[in-house]
């Protein structure tokens, strides 16, 4: 195990622990100013889908990209918490019967199975909304312009031209709205999965008020990592098992989805991941040793088993 990999594992676990604690605080029963009441069923459902699981890779990327610029961990964790709320909302809605119709998430019943469809929809809505409450908080950065740039970037990563847009293109490729539409797998990936991962990487550059060269480096790294993540996910859907994944394997094939594996084959997809790792490594060269943990993160993404 290299120094970067050992440090990565330690820091990933610590960020997951810190993110869990912060989300538990942010999603407590206590109301914020201008809130009237936090309904018990809604907050419990939000906590069910947000706490007690997950690698917290997206907050980790926000924390570590910010660390490159010496930004305080507390600030970066708030950004990561906002990002994780978006991610958790997307999983709730993706699992619904009208979308992927999944019964299992992180090894336990999906939210609509544990509660009901209406509660799941509203819990997702509330997580999406609170993300923008969090990302605009003064504690993130003293400069309001920085907070504005973060908010805009998160909105664009999450919305029409990002995750939500990618989701509808993916559904169109399954034939949900009539005949199957041709799927540009790389574009769908960039939007549906890659946009939030990329945001985690550029968030540090925004917080650190990086130079254009530094911003571009983290942008390039984030795009390569995001694509590697999706290819690894596609490979796991073919080669993984449900116990390790914490969700059913073979779901993509059952839905007739076009994936990197269906387009490139297993060997071609694995070679593509290796090429992306080289791209990610090259992008981080501008940071020297400061990029070692992020380099290890790219390897983790490519080699993960769940």
Automatic annotation (TrEMBL):
Keyword Transferase: yes
Xref: InterPro entries: Isoprenoid_synthase_dom_sf, Polyprenyl_synt, Polyprenyl_synt_CS, Prenyl_diphosphate_synthase
Record GO biological process: terpenoid biosynthetic process
Signal peptide: none
Entry-linked Gene3D superfamilies: Farnesyl Diphosphate Synthase
Membrane-traversing stretches: none
Pfam families noted in UniProt: polyprenyl_synt
Molecular functions per Gene Ontology: metal ion binding; prenyltransferase activity
Cofactor list: Mg(2+)
Family named by the database record: Belongs to the FPP/GGPP synthase family.
Protein name as catalogued: Probable farnesyl diphosphate synthase
Originating species: Bradyrhizobium uaiense
């Amino acid at each position: 195990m290299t120094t970067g990999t050992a440090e990565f594992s330690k820091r990933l676990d610590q960020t997951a622990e810190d993110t869990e604690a912060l989300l538990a605080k942010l999603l407590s029963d206590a109301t914020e100013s201008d809130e009237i009441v936090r309904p018990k069923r809604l907050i419990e459902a939000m906590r069910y889908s947000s706490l007690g699981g997950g690698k917290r890779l997206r907050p980790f990327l926000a924390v570590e990209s910010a660390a490159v610029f010496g930004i305080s961990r507390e600030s970066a964790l708030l950004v990561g918490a906002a990002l994780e709320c978006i991610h958790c909302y997307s999983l709730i809605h993706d699992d619904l019967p009208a979308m992927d119709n999944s019964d299992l998430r992180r090894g336990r019943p999906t939210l609509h199975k544990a509660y009901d469809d209406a509660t799941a929809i509203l819990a997702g809505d509330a997580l999406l909304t609170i993300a923008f409450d969090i990302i605009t908080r003064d504690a993130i950065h003293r400069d309001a312009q920085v907070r504005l740039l973060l908010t805009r970037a998160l909105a664009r990563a999450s919305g029409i031209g990002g995750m939500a847009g990618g989701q509808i293109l993916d559904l169109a490729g399954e034939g949900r709205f009539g005949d199957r539409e041709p799927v540009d797998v790389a574009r769908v990936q960039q939007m549906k999965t890659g946009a939030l991962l990329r945001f985690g990487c550029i968030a540090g550059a925004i917080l650190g008020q990086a130079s254009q060269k530094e911003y571009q480096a983290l942008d390039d790294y984030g795009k390569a990592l995001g694509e590697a993540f999706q290819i690894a996910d596609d490979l796991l859907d073919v080669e993984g098992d449900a116990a390790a994944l914490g969700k059913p394997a073979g779901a993509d094939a059952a839905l007739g989805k076009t994936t990197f594996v269906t387009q490139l084959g297993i060997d071609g997809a694995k070679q593509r991941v290796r090429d992306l790792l080289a791209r990610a490594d090259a992008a981080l060269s501008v940071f020297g040793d400061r990029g070692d943990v992020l380099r290890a993160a790219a390897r983790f993404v490519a080699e993960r088993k769940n």
